[in-house]
Each structure stands twice: as structure tokens, then as C-alpha cells.
Amino acid sequence: MRQPFHGRRHSVCTFFLLITLALASIATAATPPPDTGSGTAGEGKVIETMNSGGYTYLLVESGTDRTWVAIPETSVKAGESVRYQPGMTMKDFHSKTLDRTFATLIFSPGLEKNTSGDNTAKAAPSPSGGNDTFTSAIAAEKSAETPPASTSGGSGGAVVPFAEISVDKASGPNGYTVDEIFKKSKELNGKTVRVRGKVMKINMNIMGRNWIHLQDGTGDPLTNTHDLVVTTAETPTEGATITAEGKMVADKDFGAGYAYAAIIEDAKFLP
Q: Which site from 33, 157, 223, 227 is most exposed, i.e. has the minimal number of CB atoms within 10 Å?
């Protein structure tokens, strides 16, 4: 009588192991190369500084390396030694307020400590009067709405870095931008939605479906609401702009640390 029970237990364990491995492969395939610098922190001497659009831009020198860092507007002078908090590295980021493109720019929430003094640097009040100065600064920089309060739109390990693109919103009464889908995720839960975006990444045949990362230039990279995952049996071309329609699911948790504030499942691609 015990053998069948052990057999079932072994099958269940094997099933969950396969699920975990499958989800891990999603993260491995979708995680950007190490040189994107996600979560980068550092310290050094400020060589140049400027304020614009609610940001303080710092050129930080450490040894022979020089790094541009953007933090919420803060009082910092050239010559000071600073330590900035971990942040997201953006490649070829264009600042609209400075009309300047940075080959590499680290978005940091702020300075951990001014190493040439005793006080931790504090961000100046937000130009818009908001409580979250960093979020407000990004909203001003990109001339976009303030992002939602959600701390993560999708699995941090699987998100694709933000791309400076602009894709027209999907047509129809159920058409939404990527940003709108995240903001209205609770309201749209279980409904059929349509979204148009650029295919940033494709992960093939994971748990019997293909996982497509779509971006349209909307959303906030700090909360991962810029990158929308769509699951489908179809196979688009990476880099193509497509319109996908499927069921929107809010707060989808696959386990093993992979949870999505919004995901579109069983999508079909429209002409």
C-alpha cells in the first residue's frame, strides 16, 4: 500500500522541480548581460555636476574610471567624495531637459553618505511637491505621468531593460498602452485586452508556451512597468512591432520568486 503513495510523492516533487527549472530558464534567457549594470553602486570624487528636470547629474571619478550618475536633486559640489546607492544603468539615455545623450547613465535613488563629511546627503523637495522625489524626477524627465505605487511590475530577474522607443497605442476599445495595463491591472484582471509593442525578447517553449517581452516606450523602468510579458503559442520575430490580444491577469505568481503585477496570457497576434 505504501509504494503507490511514494510514487505519487515522487511525481509531485519531480513536477515542482521541473517548474522551478523552467522558471529559472526564463530568468536566464531574459536577464540582460552583466554590463547593463542593473543594481550598480559606487563611490568616488565628483568631477562635474549639474541640475536639471529634478535630477542632479554627477560625473564621479574612481581611479581611472568616470561614471555619470543621476540622483534626485541634491546639493553636491565638484570636489566632494560621494557614495551613491545601487541603481539601474541605462545605455544611450537621452535627457530631454538637457538635450544630451549619455552613453551610460546610472539612475540611483540617492547618496548613501557624503564620505567627505558626516551627514547623509538628502534629496531636495520634488518640483511637483510629491513625496517620492526620485519617481517625480523621472516623471518630469520623461514628460510622463507619475508611475504607479507598485514596487515591481514583473519578475525582476526576467525584466528586459527599458528602451527609448515610441509605439502607437493599439486600436479598439480594449486597446491599452503598456503603462495603462500596469496601472489598471486590478480593473482589467480577467478581461481581454489588446496591446501594441516592440518584441524585445522571446523565450521559446517554456511550460508549453512562448514568453514575449513587449515595450512601447511607456511605463517606468524603476518599477518594471515598462516591460510587459505576453504568453502565446505563436512565434513573432524579435524586434518586430506587433499587436497582441489576450486575457490580462493581475498578480500572477508562478512560484520560485516569479510573480507579475500584470501579464497577458494565451495571446493571439492581430494583423
A: 33
For residue 157, how many other CB atoms are within 10 A of its CB?
15
The dihedral region occupied by 190, where left means phi > 0, alpha psi between -120 and 50, and beta the remainder, is left
Distance CA 32, CA 224 (A): 14
Cell numbers that stand for 14 in this block = 519531480
Place of cell 480577467: 190
Each residue's pLDDT tens digit, 91-138: 888 887 788 888 888 888 889 854 444 334 343 333 333 334 444 444
C-alpha cell belonging to residue 241: 512591432
- For 207, left (φ over 0), alpha (ψ -120 to 50), or beta? left
Q: Which of 12-16, 19-23, 224-228 has the highest mean pLDDT?
A: 224-228
Band of residue 256 on the pLDDT scale cut at 50, 70, 90: low
Q: Give the model's pLDDT for residue 58.
A: 94
| DSSP letters spanning 95-147 | ETTTTEEEEEEEE-S-EEEETTSSSPP-BPPPTT--S-HHHHHHHHHHT-PPP
Residue 270: alpha-carbon gap to chain centroid: 26
Question: Please, is 71 exposed, middle or buried when counting C-beta atoms within 10 Å of its C-beta (0-12, 13-18, 19+)?
Answer: buried
Q: In whole angstroms, give the CA distance from residue 229 to residue 201.
A: 9
pLDDT for 182 beyond 50: yes
Cell triple for residue 257?
520568486
